[in-house]
Give the backbone structure.
Amino acid sequence: MADPTPGPGEVIVEVARCGIRGSDLHMTEDPFFDLPPGSVLGHEYAGEVVALGKGVDRVKVGDRVAVLPLSGCWQCASCLAGEPAWCARMRLEGGGYGEYARVSQHQCLRLPCTVTTEDGALVEPLAVGLHGVTLSNLPPGDRVLIVGAVPLELPATFWCKNLGASRIAVPAASNRREALAYRMGATAFIDPAERTLDSVLDALGGPPDVVFECVGKPGVLETCIEYVRPRGAVVILGLCTARDAFLPFNVVAKEVRLHGSAFYTRRDFEVAADTLDADPAAPHAMITETVALAHLPEAFEALRHRTSQCKVLVKPG
């Protein structure tokens, strides 16, 4: 595949690191996504600007940037507000698993000088978690239950703790993952195989005020609705592409708020980068391995199975 060249308003980013996301795994096996041949995946990435197209004035060659992988028209109200996810022409773009990526200058966020380019690849997953937690309207002191997978679980845990949650229960897995979750702010662990309403109540000292669904599989949403307190909130972060059935009466009877959380805003990216600048230690601990691009297929297959890995980064160059 030929190296990309920038068009007007575009830049070329030499990718330094790209995180492997659960959705990347789904895209390679789930016909729902219907990817055309030759698609380059990878949307959690950071790198260095190495070429500019005509009219670029927001970044310069040599800037280290995290890439917001949402492309829009950059002229509508949503784009101008820093919310390209709601643009009528929005596209989720990959490219992070290549050595070079062509993106709009509007998709680039300059990294603070103290944030490494490696940690820059964490801006996107941190922004995902921040967006979901923000939508929950989580007040200080709330009890939180997180149901799901590590790539979404840990950023959500991190932001819940930073925004003042009093107790946060997460799935128990390997000792390695539990140590990471504790570092990110978890206060209790529940074995998913033995999770019951009673075990949730014991772990949190009462019913959760907010439940984050980070699995994306049929049946999980119904469980979250069962666990949350009356008039609590369930935030759906997991991407379930299969039809799911649950009893709407339970939502109505408990007056549960169901809130989908898709993507993020540019402001979420900025807050994530600033947080890495202020205190990178806990987020950096999510990185458990870095692999060369040549070993990406093996890394994908390993992550399809139960593993103690958290965030695996790819080094394309």
